[in-house]
Structures are given as C-alpha cells and as structure tokens.
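ESCALATION

Customer reports they have been waiting on this structure for their group meeting. Please prioritize. Original submission:
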Amino acid sequence: MWGAVLGISLQARTIELAPASAVIAYGRLATAGAAVAAIVQILIGFWSDARRRRGSRRIEFYAIGGIAGAAALVSFYDARTLTALAISFVALQAALNVAIGPFQAIIPDFVERNRIGVASSWMAALQSAGNAVGALAAAFVNNARALGSALSALLLVTCAVTSGHARQLSLCDSGDARQPLRVTRPFVDLFISRALIYVGFYTLLGYLLFYVEAVLGATALTDARRLTGILIVSFTLIGAAGAALAARPSDRLDKRLVATAGAAGFIIALGLFIGAQGIGVAVAATLVAGLGWGIFLVADWAIACRVLPPGAMARGMGIWNLAVVLPQIVAPALTTAVLEHLKLGTGSQATRVAFGLALGETLGGIAWLWRLSRCAIGE
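Update from on-call: job pushed to the front of the queue and completed.
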C-alpha cells in the first residue's frame, strides 16, 4: 500500500487535482499526514504495551488499523477534490499507524534474540516485495477506483493471515514486563542516525516522479507514472536481494559495518541520479540504491531490536518509528524551502538539487550511527 501511495499515487493524484501548484500541494499533504502518523504511533505504543503485559499478541491493533485503513484507502483513490484527498490521506495515515507500531514489535514478541538478524532480513524482503506490488499496481492500473479497491482487499487479506498466524505462536519472554522506556544515549544516537537517513530516502522517493518528468523527459503524466513505477519496482525487488545478502552478516558481523555498506550504496546511487542524462544511468542508479537500501534495512532493524528495552518494545518502536515518520515531514518541507530560496520551483535543476540534499542527509546519518558503541548494540 505505501509503495503505491507514497511512491506514486500521492504525487499523481495531487497533479490531477491541483496541476498549477502540485509540488507545493504535495508538500503540504505529506507534512499533514506524517504529523498525524507521529501522534497516533506514540499514543498507540503505550496502549499496545499495556495490552502486551496482559498477554495480548497485539492482534486487535492489526485488525483495527487494517479495516479502517482499507476504508480510507478506497476514499483516497475516489477523492474528487484536493480537500477530499487531504482528508482521506490523513485518515489513512491515522488508521494504518494504529497497526504499524504494534506490528513492528512482532519480531521481538515471537523471535528469539539470536535469530533477530535473519527475521529482520525476512521482514525487509517482504516489505520490499509489498512495495514492489503496490508501485507496480499504481503504475499500470489507470482506474483509480479499481486500484483503491484492489489494494484495500490485499491489505485486509494480509492482515487476516498475519493475525491468524500470530494466534498460534508462543510469546517470547519480554523480561521486566513493566520496564520503563528510558531515553538513553544509544537510543538517541540511533534515532538521529535513522532520521537523517530516512530524510534522504523520502526526498528521493517523494521527488522521483518529478525527476522522471523533468530529467528523463516523460512529460505525459501517464508515462511519468508508469516509468516511476518501474523504477520503484526495480528498487524494491533488488532491495529484497540486498536484504537476503545482509541476513547472516547482520547476525555475525558488526551491525554498524553492515548498515554503513548499505548506506554507501544508496549514496553512490544518489550521485548517479544527479549526474544522469538519460534512462540508462537512472536505471543503474535505481538498482544500486535498492541493493544498498535492502542491506541497510536489515542492519537497522537488527540494531533497534538490540537497543530497545524488551519490556517496552511497542513504545520503543513507536518512538523509534518517529525517525521514519518525522522525515516524511522534514523531507518535503526542507526541500521546498531550499528550492524556494534558490528560486527553482520546477525543472531538472530543482530535482537535482533535491537529490543533492538527499545525498548529504544520508551521509550525515551514517556518520552519526558510528556514535553507537559495539557494547550498545550488543556486539
């Protein structure tokens, strides 16, 4: 669902409903939705951990988020005005973030600590596969109502499968069930590092369709949407391969090294995007970026599962996941501010500047990660 909405559909629907000011409207919608997501995740995290202490498998949060999210998704694709689109997108962010915090605790809830690296690689690979399916659907299904209905049905089915399987699993020992969530220095360093890297990621993702229009010459919205979808699918599929490659190293090597290797690939890819003059280099950049991102995701998740306290995992994941949500606010806001300052509202130069910002943000994030000691990540 997010592969379709955040990668293609939010930008495309904004262009359809506000063609004269699409870039500005996109920034405002992305900022509002992410702000709601941040608030919901924090509130739900505390409630979810309280339910976990009573033996809950957190399935009720998956169900509420999945059902409400499916309804909001249909409304998003059926919206006929920019206001209706904004309301449905905010509702979608609120609903799905009821489930996301509790769901991110699913690995430490059910997986032994010595298998977290492998489990994280599966999570990253399946997340990449889901993003690929969504991006592919958004790129090639031209009927918005049919697309919304199909994604909603898929969301409900996968939610039911996950919930049914979780009912059959034994909960792992969470240690001190009333363990408070302490904001330690490793937690802060991990948060800042992750936030900076995700600002770079969401800058790339958010402005990719505009890049395809301006740099690669796909001036028709249908063509731009289709080519953007192909690039995102390529990114996510190769990301699954990167996740598979990182599985064993994440359990056996210094996780900071694995994360750095992945981020380095992403940085190289951004450099290729900035210098690209045609589709060939852009495709190569996409593949390098996807491989690096898949590797980074596995190490990132494995580090978090070691740093966050077991007895406050959903609260920790909710706050930790703000390092994903807040960049959805910062990326469009910061990029818009820089482009307005440089008077680059449109054109190829504007998207190259945006990708230059993404490169610097990612580099800063991986440099910050090395403030974490080996001891802090359980090495």
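Sent to customer with the following note: Residues 267 and 359 are 6 Å apart (CA to CA).
Escalation resolved.
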